[in-house]
Design a protein that fits this description.
394 residues, alpha/beta, seven-stranded mixed beta sheet, two-stranded parallel sheet, 14 helices, globular
């Protein structure tokens, strides 16, 4: 397949390649990706072999590692979706972190300057807008970010929070973006919503056969049913991936569940999670269920939520294996089902183990990679919009 895409991109904090996947479909050519976690690099290279992937802490990446792959005039776009743990409100203690990770946005700016990038796109959780630099400080992280953008020559910028459901993603996912340009006169604007209607979990899972926990059978054939969304994720021409329509089902792999876990799932109604079971049952019933290990001793607020078929899912996170229960089956989601919720094409493969302890930050399992990624369809919308902006410059 000839590559006539003329808009160039450098991918910082690249993860498994969600941004690259969407930008590639929109018409970009990613030149370099920088990622710290080895399993993410393996996934990225497997799906985007044409990209030079640098496996490193971005703070240690020097200009000479990047510039050989950059055109003399510089690149069009640098993206920077730095880790969001210190900005997220999902955990009880996550926002209590005050460490150097919250200033990693500086690396995106540094790489943009090295590559003489016309545009720089930051992505993070909306919680970044209220995170302070220190516990007793009045200075916000985003204020420091905007100040340093101006100092670096990227003072022309816009900021916006986008809802992924407005761009066809079957998931309630709000993300904060800053689009900045070193070109002072260019008019910047965000992508406009593209979805004609909300894409639901039913749309997302269409064509995926059910699996039975604790078995070794991973189906490789689709069920004969299709939605507009499932057809799009099989359309490798749209995604500018090799091949036509995807015919082999990948990673619809059964998970392992203990018997009492399956019994717990059977108690859940659509939309209910572990928290609701603790509220629904009496103290005596809870005690009996805990004695049978059907309920855990501790209640986790965002755990074991049964998805509703006719609504989008809630936000897919790195804990998606623990957080979601299939809408009709008594089991967690498969890797492919989680990838469908994030809008990864069906031909996308994920390397690394199926499950690793979350305390190990040097490796990410397949579920974590998916949960931490930018939804490719949202990246696609940004790609189309940025191309419009670049064409107006030319």
């Amino acid at each position: 397949m000839s590559d006539n895409r003329k808009f160039t991109h450098i991918d910082c904090f690249a993860g498994p390649g969600g941004i690259c996947t969407g930008l590639t479909a929109s018409g970009f050519r990613t030149l370099v990706a920088i990622e710290y976690i080895k399993t993410c690099c393996d996934t990225y290279s497997a799906n985007h072999p044409e990209v030079h992937v640098i496996h490193s802490d971005i703070r240690n990446v020097e200009a000479e590692q990047i510039l050989p792959f950059v055109p003399a005039e510089g690149v069009d776009l640098v993206t920077s979706g730095m880790p969001c743990e210190t900005f997220s409100t999902a955990g009880n203690t996550s926002r209590s972190f005050y460490d150097d990770r919250q200033f990693l946005f500086r690396e995106g700016i540094r790489i943009a300057k090295i590559c003489n990038a016309k545009l720089l796109l930051f992505e993070n959780v909306p919680g970044i807008t209220s995170k302070k630099t220190q516990k007793d400080s009045d200075t916000l992280i985003v204020d420091v970010l905007k100040k340093e953008l101006k100092e670096a020559g990227y003072g022309n910028f816009i900021e916006i929070v986008l809802d992924a459901t407005q761009f066809g993603v079957p998931q309630k996912r709000n993300r904060y973006f800053i689009l900045a340009s070193r070109l002072k006169d260019v008019v910047l604007s965000p992508p406009k919503p593209t979805a004609k209607r909300v894409t639901t979990v039913r749309d997302a899972f269409m064509g995926l056969p059910n699996v039975t926990p604790n078995t070794a059978i991973s189906p490789t054939e689709y069920v004969n049913e299709e939605s507009e969304y499932s057809a799009l994720l099989k359309d490798n021409e749209f995604w500018k991936r090799k091949g036509g329509s995807q015919t082999e089902l990948l990673l619809q792999t059964p998970m392992k569940h203990r018997g009492h876990t399956i019994l717990r799932f059977s108690l859940l109604k659509p939309g209910e999670g572990l928290k609701d079971l603790f509220e629904r049952f009496s103290p005596e019933e809870i005690e009996n269920l805990q004695r049978s290990r059907i309920l855990p001793k501790k209640m986790f607020i965002k755990r074991n939520v049964r998805l509703k078929l006719d609504e989008p899912s809630s936000t897919v996170t790195s804990h998606c294996l623990d957080e979601f229960v299939h809408p009709t089956a008594n089991r967690a989601l498969t890797v492919r089902e989680c990838a469908r919720l994030q809008s990864f094409p069906d031909s996308y493969v994920f390397h690394g183990p199926f499950l690793v302890p979350h305390i190990d930050r040097s490796v990410q399992d397949k579920y974590e990679q998916i949960g931490d990624a930018v939804p490719p369809l949202l990246a696609y919308a940004w790609g189309k919009q940025v191309i419009n902006i670049l064409q107006s410059i030319q």
